[in-house]
Design a protein that fits this description.
Helix content: under 10%
Number of strands: 5
Strand content: over 45%
Protein name: Small CPxCG-related zinc finger protein
Strand order of the largest sheet: 4-3-2-1-5
Number of domains: 1
Organism: Streptomyces kaempferi
């Protein structure tokens, strides 16, 4: 069994209310002896469900979320009037 510790960042945008946010996640990616891969996500040391599986908007609680590469929300805010 092999475990790799990595960090991933994602940007999220709510397709209902337009709210955008970004998150940084610590991952433990494990490959077992049968080549099965599991990923355990953590934020501030707490185990959380994958933010990619069922994201929810913190502003309106919608589940219509677009997941994007990191920095997309921050770069969009630079161009706001």
């Amino acid at each position: 069994m092999h475990t790799e510790h990595v960090q991933r960042e994602y940007s999220f945008a709510c397709l209902d209310c337009g709210y955008g946010w970004e998150g940084t996640y610590d991952l433990d990616i494990t490959v077992d002896e049968h080549a099965r891969i599991t990923a355990d996500y953590r934020v501030d040391g707490r185990h959380i469900p994958s933010p990619l599986t069922s994201p929810q908007c913190p502003a309106c609680e919608s589940r219509k979320i677009r997941i994007m590469r990191p920095g997309r929300v921050a770069s969009a805010r630079l161009h706001e009037p």
